[in-house]
């Protein structure tokens, strides 16, 4: 085995601009290679990586251009992460990984769950849950912010959205972690285990679905899906796929934004004091924190025809990683201090963390609402989160976030 690894390494020395390497994220060392890519090769072909050859798109403009051409750059042909589908895998189609016209109908089904009026309806619930979680935290004692706050709040929110049994809500976290970690599909054994958990998740939701069948419509997502044309006739794989999409979409991402709110503001204490002094900046700070964190580092597209992007010839079948993480640090858009958190950044909302175009995150408002309510409730309690040790980070190039974050809270 050791010889095999050495042989591979000898055949292909590591490309320092291969930004798909998990260790860059585990060790928080992705900033420099992306800065080099943005400066020297914003559309760069990486020949050798764990995921095979791929194009890295690392600046703002070409990402917007590519996402504006969904008929040329497909989400369906090869999926939405750098990891390819494996022929022997059972596919679980999700509308994030479908092209038009299927995407349009399925997205339309869940979109009503995220309208501004639905957000208003949910605000009181979210606020009450957030207050409860914050009021249980110990003052002046070290605890894990990820577990006690970020996971607890996002999982509770999903349980409400799905009308999921409350006592079992951590199952959502478990399934989401397995579904969202692309490092977990690198060996056949891990792929097998992952699939097993996804089916377990599917079977559980099938039970919830059956219980709501032939019942009057309720304002949760399962009921909404049952009562819609586009979703109600899906085959079981498609049904499971779309549920998993909503769980992962809503879980890891919002969780890591909440962890970033604690970690990032501690890293930029002047921004924190400015926010503490002026809570009217919270709305903008939410966008800024999501920009700075970028909880999904990339989405992938596959070219359907030969085409050109910024002078580079992309061949039909080539895969492209759209690095939102890097575009959100693009100085030509966000200025020289793009790497910093600036709670009054005038164009924080222009970030690409939610993507762009027809697939732009359908849950963006809900995510912003949850992070905003968290910051508001912290402000009401004059709660400051002090990081006491470096976080443990997710070792992957897709979900960009934290496994644990030791903190202490104090009053300001
Ligand atoms: C799509 C990020 C929260 C559900 C996406 C995309 C990104 C993203 C990058 C793909 C965009 C593209 O391909 O152009 C985020 C971030 C979040 C967040 C950073 C939190 C800060 C949520 C929440 C939900 C959700 C709370 C639902 C509960 C979805 C769904 C899609 C999606 C269903 C697929 C949309 C489509 O293909 O049309 N999200 N998301 N997301 N997200 Fe989110």
Automatic annotation (TrEMBL):
Key words, A-Z: Heme, Iron, Metal-binding, Monooxygenase, Oxidoreductase
GO molecular function: heme binding; iron ion binding; monooxygenase activity; oxidoreductase activity, acting on paired donors, with incorporation or reduction of molecular oxygen
InterPro entries linked to this entry: Cyt_P450, Cyt_P450_B, Cyt_P450_CS, Cyt_P450_sf
Any Pfam family: p450
Domain of life: Bacteria
Record flagged with keyword Ligase: no
PROSITE patterns: CYTOCHROME_P450
Keyword S-adenosyl-L-methionine carried by entry: no
SUPFAM superfamilies, A to Z: Cytochrome P450 (SSF48264)
Family: Belongs to the cytochrome P450 family.
Annotated protein name in UniProt: Cytochrome P450
Organism: Sphingomonas jinjuensis
């Amino acid at each position: 085995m050791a010889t095999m690894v050495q042989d591979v390494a000898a055949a292909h020395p590591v490309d320092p601009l291969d930004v798909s390497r998990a260790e860059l994220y585990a060790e928080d060392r992705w900033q420099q290679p992306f800065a080099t890519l943005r400066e020297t090769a914003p559309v760069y072909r990486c020949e050798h990586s764990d995921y095979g050859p791929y194009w890295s798109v690392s600046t703002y403009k070409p990402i917007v251009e590519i996402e504006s051409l969904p008929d040329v750059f497909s989400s369906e042909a090869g999926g939405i992460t750098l990891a390819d589908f494996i022929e022997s895998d059972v596919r679980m189609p999700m509308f994030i990984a479908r092209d038009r016209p299927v995407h349009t109908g399925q997205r339309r089904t869940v979109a009503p769950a995220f309208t501004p009026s639905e957000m208003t309806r949910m605000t009181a619930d979210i606020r009450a849950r957030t207050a409860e979680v914050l009021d249980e935290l110990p003052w002046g004692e070290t605890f894990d912010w990820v577990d006690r706050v970020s996971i607890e709040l996002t999982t509770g929110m999903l349980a409400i959205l799905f009308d999921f049994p409350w006592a079992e809500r951590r199952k959502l976290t478990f399934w989401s972690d397995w579904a969202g970690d692309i490092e977990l599909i690198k060996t056949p054994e891990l792929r097998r285990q992952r699939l097993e958990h996804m089916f377990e998740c599917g079977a559980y939701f099938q039970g919830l679905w059956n219980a709501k069948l032939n019942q009057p419509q309720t304002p949760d997502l399962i009921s909404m899906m049952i009562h819609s044309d586009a979703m109600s006739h899906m085959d079981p794989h498609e049904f499971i796929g779309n549920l998993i999409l909503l769980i992962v979409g809503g879980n890891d991402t919002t969780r890591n934004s909440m962890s970033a709110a604690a970690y990032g503001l501690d890293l930029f204490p002047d921004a924190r004091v400015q926010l503490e002094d002026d809570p009217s900046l919270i709305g903008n700070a939410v966008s800024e924190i999501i920009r700075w964190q970028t909880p999904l580092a990339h989405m992938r597209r596959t070219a359907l025809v030969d085409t050109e992007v910024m002078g580079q010839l992309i061949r039909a079948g080539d895969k492209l990683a759209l690095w939102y993480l890097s575009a959100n640090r693009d100085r030509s858009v966000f200025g020289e201090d793009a790497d910093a958190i600036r709670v009054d950044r005038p164009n924080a909302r222009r970030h690409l963390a939610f993507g762009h175009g027809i697939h732009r995150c359908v849950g963006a408002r809900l995510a912003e609402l949850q992070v905003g309510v968290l910051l508001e409730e912290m402000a009401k309690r004059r709660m400051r989160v002090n990081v006491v040790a470096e976080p443990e980070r997710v070792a992957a190039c897709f979900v960009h976030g934290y496994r644990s974050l030791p903190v202490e809270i104090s009053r300001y």
